[in-house]
Amino acid sequence: MEKFKVLITEHIAEPGIELLKKQPDVEVTYDPELFRNFDRILEIIPEYHALITRSGTPVTEELLERGKKLKVVGRAGVGVDNIDLEAASRRGILVVNAPTGNTLAATEHTMGMMLAAARLIPYAHKSLKEERKWERKKFMGVELAGKTLGIIGFGRIGSRVGIRAKAFDMKVIAYDPYIKKEKAERLGVELVDELEELLRRSDIITVHTPLTEETRNMITKREIEKMKDGVILLNIARGGIINEKDLYEALVSGKVRAAAVDVFSKEPSTDNILLDAPNIVVTPHIGANTFESQTNVAVIIANQVLAALRG
Ligand code: NAD
Predict the structure, then answer these.
(1) Distances (CA, A) of 275 to 172, 202, 288, 302
(2) Is there a catalytic annotation at residue 238?
(3) DSSP-assigned states of every residue in 40-95
(4) How far, in Å, is the centroid of ligand 1 from the Cα of 30?
(5) Which residues have C-beta within 8 Å of that of residue 191, sequence separation ≥ 6?
(6) Res. 151 pLDDT band, cuts 50 70 90
(7) Tell me, what's the pLDDT at 153?
(8) DSSP β-ladder status, 148-152 and 204-207
(9) Does the interface predicted TM-score (ipTM) exceed 0.85?
């Protein structure tokens, strides 16, 4: 019997590779640096039945055309923007991803960023550790308890942030026109019908939608003006949902007390305008970076690819 040959061109966590290797009908080639050598991938892809990548391998029409035996492309993670989906579908090649693997990692990062922004923890840390100053009065924060958290996008991550926020004694409201009211009610969260109402009522606002034509620039100067003075804003979802220039200006004016941002409209980026804003906590898109989440993603994608190969 011919074995299914699986090519992995980027780093994935060991448990996912092990799972594939122990299958009697599968042969695995794991070369985590191969994504840097596109010509080599083109050369060897004709012998493979499955390709597993992250975001670094350009899965182009040319690659898919040469992969005559390819049945499935697995993206170990969420975004599939490096894969030509249309070309894959024309050739009957299945594309699978692992959107649930990093839900908890992103949820917990959001909670960490919320606390960090509310208490300006990174600023206090820098003042004491790097500047050797003892500035107790300078770092006056706000408490989460009793505040209203507005969650835009009440999906996997948004709803889990809501559950955790309730444990902090926050009142939680959400705006998501695509979910049923009962889902929110079951979790003790009030679903509002209009974005405007959420903007008006929330002390802290966090976005957890995908980046789509509809959500790009969902929060601009116009929306920020409708918010409470001293609101805290979080974007751990995708760069561009909150307009970066408008957020910068609102932080400078003090309309927005503090912000926390993990994702940027252009990545990687070390010169984004937000890096110059006051009272902002930033991280370089590490929302999904936990050992647990990388293991989850690798195991989920291995199982998805196996299911696709075996039909
Ligand atoms: P999900 O699909 O489970 O939830 C998204 C929710 O947004 C859905 O309930 C959907 O109905 C809602 N939504 C869509 N358009 C909307 C709109 N116009 N207004 C209001 N709500 C809208 O997705 P998820 O797994 O919860 O992920 C949410 C976001 O977090 C995604 O953008 C994802 O890429 C991002 N993410 C970031 C990291 C990170 O490293 N920072 C990690 C994981 C996920």
Answers:
(1) 29, 25, 21, 38
(2) yes
(3) HHHHHGGG-SEEEE-SSS-B-HHHHHH-TT--EEEESSS--TTB-HHHHHHTT-EE
(4) 31
(5) 154, 173, 174, 175, 176, 179, 181, 184, 185
(6) very high
(7) 98
(8) parallel
(9) yes
Tokens of 111: 């909670």
- In the numeric block, which tokens belong to residue 165? 């926020």
The C-alpha angle 8, 73, 293, rounded to 5 degrees, equals 65
Q: Is 308 helix (H, G, I), strand (E, B) or coil?
A: helix
Contacts of 76 (CB under 8 A, 6+ apart): 10, 12, 16, 52, 53, 54, 98, 297, 298, 301
Residue 92 to residue 119: CA distance in whole angstroms? 52
Q: Which of 185, 267, 292, 310 is catalytic?
A: 267
Query: Which parts of 170-275 are beta strand (E)?
Result: 171-175, 190-191, 204-207, 231-235, 256-261
Global pTM reads 0.93
Residue 285 known to be catalytic = yes
All residues at 6 or more sequence positions from 91 whose CB lies less than 8 Å from its CB, including other chains = 64, 65, 70
Nearest CA owner, ligand 1 atom 22? 153
Could you give the dihedral angle defined by the CA atoms of residues 14, 19, 22 and 25, in that order, rounded to the nearest 10 degrees?
-130
Q: What is the pLDDT of residues 16-49, one digit of tens each?
A: 999 999 999 999 999 999 999 999 999 999 999 9
pLDDT in tens, 97-112: 999 999 999 999 999 9
Which residues sit with their C-beta closer than 6 Å to ligand 1?
78, 99, 102-103, 106, 152-158, 175-179, 208-211, 214-215, 236-238, 262-263, 285, 287-288
If one counts every other C-beta atom within 10 angstroms of the C-beta of residue 90, the result is: 12
182: amino acid identity, one letter: E
Q: How far apart are CA 21 and CA 302, in angstroms?
A: 10
